[in-house]
Amino acid sequence: MNLFVKLIILLPVLFFTNVSNSEVRNIFIEKNKIITLSGNFIQGGLIKGKAFPHANIKFLDKNIFLDEKNRFVFGFGRDFENKAIISITYKKKLITKSLSIEKQNYKIQRIEGLPKRMVTPPESVYKRIISENKEIAKVRKLNSNVSFIFQNFVWPLKGIITGVFGSQRVLNGKPKRPHYGIDIAAKEGTEIIAPLDSIVRMAEKDLYYTGGTIMLDHGHGVTSVYSHLSKILVKVNENIKKGDIIGLVGSTGRSTGPHLDWRINWFEQRLDPSLLIKK
Ligand SMILES: [Zn+2]
């Protein structure tokens, strides 16, 4: 095979290795009773489901909330195993189904020359970090009865992607926790919009790690975080619309330059924002 032919065969592989396509999988319960799951069956993916009245769905020991249209969601975190079990109870019958989950290939991101205080926080701020993390965890436990998550996400701003979901961070040679957000570099003061209708659940000017921080609730356990903001333009418990300006890009908290760190969760499961935006 000549080099040209090899390249033609190899190129699509190189190009698409990290791209997971949205899929639809059906679970047959009985005649006219089918549960449809659609989304990315990959680590970091979110699945949107449609059931029927009186179906009880469990995933990861959680009773899954069905809205008035019998819709529901669940997701797979960064290190989710290669199988997920969903169980459905209908008319006293229990059906369990194993779903295969694809692995992601995470990158290693090395950042050198950071000031020491940014790699290991001084002991004097431990208490502060713990209490801030508690507040964040509280928001991620919310299971709000709104269904904004069934809208399609848009990017909260346009910029250069400088950090991707799941990458293993090595700061000044020290392996650290993986990076769960997408970093989008943009000029200080760039407007950030809500990617979906939301309820504001956190609007903090100065958290230790994330600086100016907004947390939005999209319902069904899906929340998103916007970090390092220079200005916050929303208030807690405010209802906002997709496209509303929520804040401005900055470099507050532990940050090396103006950018937005954008994260999405389904409860404690960390999702990959790039998978949630329709290509
Ligand atoms: Zn980040």
Task: Provide an overview of this structure.
- This protein has 279 residues and is mostly beta strands.
- It has 2 domains: 3-100, Immunoglobulin-like (Sandwich), CATH 2.60.40; 108-276, Glucose Permease (Domain IIA).
- It is built from 4 helices and 22 strands.
Summarize the structure in short.
This protein is mostly beta strands and 279 residues long.
CATH structural class of the largest domain: Mainly Beta
The fraction of residues in strands falls at 35-45%
Kindly report how far apart the N and C termini lie.
34 Å
Q: What is the count of distinct domains?
A: 2
Task: Write out the CATH superfamily name of the largest domain.
Answer: Glucose Permease (Domain IIA)
Helices and strands: which structural class? mainly beta
Label the overall shape.
Answer: globular
Range of helix content: 10-25%
**What ligand species are in this complex?**
zinc ion
How is the main sheet built?
A: 8 strands, antiparallel
